[in-house]
Structure formats: C-alpha cells, structure tokens
Amino acid sequence: MDWVNPETLIETFGTLGLFLIVFAESGLLVGFFLPGDSLLFAAGLLASRGHLNFPLILVGCFIAAVAGDQVGYMFGNRVGPALFRRPNSRFFHRRHLEKAHRYFEKEGPKTIVLARFIPIVRTFAPVVAGVARMPYRTFVTYNVVGGFLWAIGVTTLGYVLGETIPDIDKYLLPAVAIIVALSLIPIGREVLKMRREDWDDAEVQAGIQTEREAGTRSRGGRDGDVDRRGAARDAGDEAGPGRQGLPSP
Asked: What is the maximum span of the chain, computed from C-alpha positions, in angstroms?
C-alpha cells in the first residue's frame, strides 16, 4: 500500500484521519513528510464524487491547519529562550536566531501565509516564528488568513476541478507543483534580499575592522615616536650639561 498516496490515506483513515494528518503536517515537526497540498486537493476531488462531506472537510481542515500552526508556534516559543541562552557551536549560532527574529518582525506575516503553500517549510515556519518571538497576536491573525487560503482554497480547487474536468486526478501532481512554484517566487525574492543584506553587512564589518587595524598601527607609530623622543631626552639628561654643549660651572 502506498502510504503517501493522498487518496489511499483518505480511504484508509477517513475524514478524521484527514484532519489529523493536516494538523500534524501543519505544525508538528514529525509531520513534515506528509502530503498536505495533494491531500487537500484529493479530499476536494473525492468530495466532488460524493465520497466525502464537502462542508465538513472544509471546516475541519481549516480548524486542523490553524490548530497545528498554533501548536508549532507554542513549541517554538517555549524552547526559544533556551536557544537564545545557548552558547555558539559549530551547528548553532545565536546570530541566526537574532536574524530570524528581525526577519519575522519585518516580513513575518507574509511568510506565515506563503509558507502554507510550500511543503516542509509550512511545518517549520510556525516553530521558527515562535523561536524568533514573533508577536503572538500578529501570528494568530496571519495564521488564520494562511490557514483559510490554504485549507479551504486548495480543497475547493480540487472540488471545483473535480466537477468540471473529467479525470482531473491525472493532473493532481502537476496542479500541486504549480501551486508550490507560484508560492516559491516571493519566498525566493526574500531569500535573495536577505543574502544581499548579509553581503552588505559583511562589507561594512570588513571596513570597520580595516579602520580599526589602521588606527591601531597609527597609534603604534605615534607611541613609538614618543618613546624614541623620550629616550633621547633621557640620554641627554644622563650625559650632563657638558655633553649638551653648555659651559661647565
């Protein structure tokens, strides 16, 4: 049996299993491998054939998606302080968390909505938002918006296409791929923007370091001149008045 085939999953576990899978794939880290988009599309497709109750799966998938993200956020929010106190290591750098915090302050709402349509990313996005201490009210608002667009939108798309296009299940994977590709465009733009900002920050830090080194060398040269002049005065004092060209008493 193909356990990742959407129709097989729904036929095996039923409507309640559909809700549990959407919940796990939305915010539980162990559910990242589950087929969220294709599962919703297949649920709508089966509903168009009379196998599932369409209004019920709309409401249930929406609630499950929002609840899953809430659990992911709370988990990240709970472990976040411990991560911020953790010392830097080979695989962990506090600056990455600080960068994530700044990113979610600036672009968090957009990310929470768009991440819904990107496999794996949607599982980890609420956890990272919690770790980055994204404001809770903001997260809840856009979690509801993203959950509505994803759970209800993709399921309704499967239902409508199932009623209007014969054998639409043959185009299930291409349809999901198009949805994912469109969702990746704004995310890719943000990643490139962050990379450019990192490069600019690196150049600024390199310039500051160069100025510091130049200042250190300059101060070292001035200190050396002062030391040499001081040594010359001390040598003159030790030589006595006669050595300095003054008449002896």
From this structure: 125
Tens-digit pLDDT profile for residues 129-160: 888 888 899 999 999 999 999 999 999 988 99
Written as six digits, the tokens of 108 are 């968090």
Angle in degrees, CA 77, 82, 83, rounded to 5: 85
In whole angstroms, what is the distance from residue 119 CA to residue 35 CA?
8
Q: Which two tokens stand for residue 46?
A: 């089966």
Give yes or no for a contact between 168 and 49, defined as CB atoms under 8 angstroms apart.
no
Is the distance from CB of 43 to CB of 21 less than 8 angstroms?
no
User: What is the C-alpha separation between 58 and 77, in angstroms, rounded?
Assistant: 29
Digit-coded pLDDT (tens) for 54-107: 999 999 999 999 999 999 999 988 887 676 566 655 545 566 566 666 667 777
Beta carbons of 71 and 28 less than 8 angstroms apart: yes
Q: Any residues with CB less than 8 A from the CB of 115 and at least 6 apart, and which?
A: 121, 122, 125, 146, 187
Q: Which of 20, 150, 140 lies closest to 69, judged by CA?
A: 140
Report which DSSP code applies to 91: S
Cβ atoms of 46 and 10 closer than 8 Å: yes
* DSSP one-letter string for 103-121: HHHHHHHHHHHHGGGSTTH
